[in-house]
Design the sequence.
């Protein structure tokens, strides 16, 4: 019960981080639709994160991001803004959720980190909006991070940079 409680609280923090400054729903989405979507998303994240109890490869992580985006759009297209969710939003949702779970010791270290305005500013990229990035841009950002992390993992580097803000 305690773990489920903590995971739900982590999910709420994740939504706050991923949905702020971001248009997720279309104007016709009802509150009931939004609640249903959030429940679906929480269940999806809990299923996905089971595999992160062990080390996950970068390719498997990218596959999880693709699958999450596809499943969200397939099941909730009718309430999403323009019928879709950006890759940037999906990566923020999954990567932030994983960061929290890793930080409290529930999963292994994730291969990536949440890409947001803090991380983009550390890369001196002030024009890219994390809410709008697509997969190719995301991969390029990860490659830029790899060049500057000085023998740290991406997740460790991000935690240090985030705490410096």
Sequence:
């Amino acid at each position: 019960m305690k773990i489920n409680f903590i995971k739900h609280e982590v999910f709420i923090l994740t939504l706050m981080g991923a949905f702020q400054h971001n248009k997720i729903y279309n104007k016709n989405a009802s509150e009931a639709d939004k609640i249903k979507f959030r429940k679906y998303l929480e269940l999806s994240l809990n299923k996905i994160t089971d595999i992160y109890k062990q080390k996950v490869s970068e390719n498997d992580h990218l596959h999880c991001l693709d699958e999450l985006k596809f499943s969200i759009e397939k099941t909730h297209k009718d309430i999403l803004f323009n019928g879709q969710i950006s890759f940037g939003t999906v990566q923020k949702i999954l990567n932030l959720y994983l960061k929290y779970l890793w930080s409290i010791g529930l999963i292994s270290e994730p291969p990536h980190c949440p890409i947001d305005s803090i991380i983009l500013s550390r890369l001196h990229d002030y024009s890219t909006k994390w809410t709008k990035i697509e997969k190719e841009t995301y991969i390029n950002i990860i490659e830029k991070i790899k060049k500057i992390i000085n023998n740290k993992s991406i997740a460790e580097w991000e935690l240090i940079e985030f705490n410096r803000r």
Observations:
- Helices lie at 2-19, 31-49, 58-76, 87-103, 117-122, 135-148, 154-164.
- The two ends are 34 Å apart (CA to CA).
- Residues 72 and 120 are 25 Å apart (CA to CA).
- The chain is about 65% helix and 0% strand.
